[in-house]
Automatic annotation (TrEMBL):
The chain crosses the membrane at residues 12-31, 37-59, 66-87, 93-112, 117-135, 141-166. Keywords: Membrane, Transmembrane, Transmembrane helix. Coiled coil: none annotated. This is Signal transduction histidine kinase. It comes from Lentzea alba.
Amino acid sequence: MTDHAVLATARQVLLVVVVAIQLGLTLPALVTHDHAPAAWVAFALLAAVLALVSGSVAAGRAELPAALALPGAAAALTSSFLATTALPGGASFGPADWAFGLVGWYLLLLLAERPKILATALGAHIAFSIAWFLHDGNGDAGTAGVVVLSGTSVQLGALVIIRVLVRDARLAAQAATEHDAARTREELARQREQDLRTGFAGQLGAVLPLLADLADEVVSAGDEATRLRCSVAAVQLRRLFAENDDVPDPLLHELTACVDVAERRGVVVSLAVSGVATPVPTEVRRELVAPMARALAVADGRAKVSLLRTPDEVRVAVVTQASGALPDQDAPASVAVETSVHGGLVRSEARWRTT
């Protein structure tokens, strides 16, 4: 149960308590004792406040709006003044003093979620009642002390219980929210790990057969074709590792990773970048980098890589001297690729339209 639900339930219970006290206890005291007419005005004023509040409380609203609670509390204090001054002589805190306990419950009903204002209003109500008792001077001080202590302790105890229940409900809701958030983060991390594992498995599809062939001595590391396969696998792996790095410009980072592998093989590579970084989905980045990675895998001597980014298009192009045939590649789904080989030069360009 949320803190709002706890407060709404507590206020409904307080409403029942107020109705029971006003009709079952205070009305008979008002009828059977000789009060001034102001006492009936006070009773009617409290009944009017009850009528205004009961609809909102019965509807299950957790908090009363200030426009209703504060004027209602002021009306309850006014009723306290009218009823107290209308008491018969020497009747303060006695059987005829019907308003003392009832007004306190009204204040609790109206101001349960505003403890500071409630404490102030309840203090004013008790202080005036005691002051009138001292002014009247005909009551029993012992009886008055018992009435004040018992009445206020019950009402303050009810307030403490309500605040504790509301606090515990709020803490429980926060704990549940944090638990759900932790579970969500755990599930996202698990899903990301699974996606990465699946992605690695897919990208390693070309590498694992090569390793198996080398281990079984089906191919020889001295063969030109095997060296080409190793070069392609090295570029693919380096790009795959770079794909999962957290960097501001992932596309440029992956291109740079592929260039680094080629440079380690002795290829002189120049990289030209134009335009500002544009968000590119992971799958599209793979398709943009793949043709350039294939070309660099067979590069021999020099290569030039270009990255051009405009608001409408992203292009990755490479021109290089080739020492062997380009490895086969599946047709990309999101990127347009143009590749040509002339006189030992390989030119490849991949284009992706952002719109």
